[in-house]
Amino acid sequence: MSDILQSLNFKVANASEEYKTRRKIQMVRFLASAAVTIFASRFAYKATITRQYVPTLFQGNHSPPLSYNFTTDAAVAVGTGTLLCGSVTSMLVFGSFWCMDVSNIKEFGWKMKSIMGGDIKEKELSEMPMDEESALIQDSINDMLEGRYDFDDEGDSSGSQK
Description:
Subcellular location: Membrane
Number of strands: 0
Number of helices: 6
Helix content: 55-70%
Oligomer: single chain
Radius of gyration: 31 Å
Structural class: mainly alpha
InterPro entries: AIM11
Membrane topology: Multi-pass membrane protein
Organism: [Candida] subhashii
Shape: flat
Transmembrane segments: 27-45, 74-98
Order of helices and strands: HHHHHH
């Protein structure tokens, strides 16, 4: 397989096995969620068709029959709607993760930050000079983390005045 990819001049041929495995896992997750979406939509279609009221020749079509249960119909509608929403959302998330080559939420955050230019802005912000108050607060927090505390001006560590 790698020989065919190299002969066609694909960059994936030179990729590591770990990268290829990661991409396969991303593809399988997307295809599995797409299959679940197809089955969920088919289930929703069947549930809708079976619950449809079709009157016979001499029945009125303006009111449902007396044996109709609105609670069951509402429960089925909420269940199928939730199933469809969850499956489509998972397909969308796994598909975008596969396209962006992302494996977890943390990587997604880094990727979105780099796409939107946040990493450049963060670098510019870190290179800006710090004002005196911010430097004082930062130094105070660093001193506390390192175990150095500021006491009275007289140097008394007990806190009592002389």
